Amino acid sequence: MKLVILITAKIEHGLEVAQSWQDAGAPGVTILRTHGLHTLQRELERGDIELPRMVASMASAMAALIENVEERGEMIFSLVDDDLVDDLIAQTSNVLGDLTEPNSGILFTIPIERAIGVRHHGRT
Predict the structure, then answer these.
(1) How confident is the model over 97-122, as pLDDT tens digits?
(2) pTM higher than 0.85 for the full model?
(3) DSSP line for the chain
(4) Which of 80, 92, 102, 103 is the most exposed place for a label (fewest CB within 10 A)?
(5) CA angle 95, 32, 21 (to 5 degrees)
C-alpha cells in the first residue's frame, strides 16, 4: 500500500482532484486546508497581517497569524493499493496540469507497511 499525498495552492481544483481520485478507485480521500510557512512569512514581512499586541507564546502567535491569512493551500491524501498510484498521478495531472511546473503542487507517496481499518467503498 501507498499513502499518496498532494499539496497544492490551487484550492479551486482540490475537490475536483479528490473526486477524480475517488472515481479512479481510491477507497477514501481526505482534504485538509494548509498554510505554507513561506507564505506566512512573506505576508508577515509585507505587513499584510498584524499579530495581536500581546501573544502569550509562539504557538498563539502562529495561530493568530494563520487565522488572518487569506492565501491557503490544500493537502489531499489517500491510502491506496500500489497499482492505483499511477492512476492517481495521471488524474492529478489531468486536473492541475504538469506538476513539474512552478506553483502546480507537490505529489509524493509513502510506503505503508500496515494499515488497519481501510475500507474499499463500493466493493464487496
Answers:
(1) 999 988 888 999 999 999 888 777 65
(2) no
(3) -EEEEEEES-GGGHHHHHHHHHHHT-S--EEEEE--HHHHHHHHHHTSS---S--SSHHHHHHHHHHH----EEEEEEEE-GGGHHHHHHHHHHHH--TTSTTS-EEEEEE-S--SS---TT--
(4) 102
(5) 35
Q: Say how far apart CA 73 and CA 93 lie, in whole Å.
A: 17
Q: Where are the domains of the chain?
A: 2-111
Looking up cell 494499515, which residue turns up? 115
* Phi, psi angle pair for 25, to nearest 5°: 120, 5
Which residue shows C-alpha cell 492541475? 96
The rounded distance, in Å, linking the Cα atoms of 30 and 75 is 8
Cα–Cα distance between 79 and 121 in angstroms, integer?
Answer: 13
Q: Which CATH class is domain 2-111?
A: alpha beta
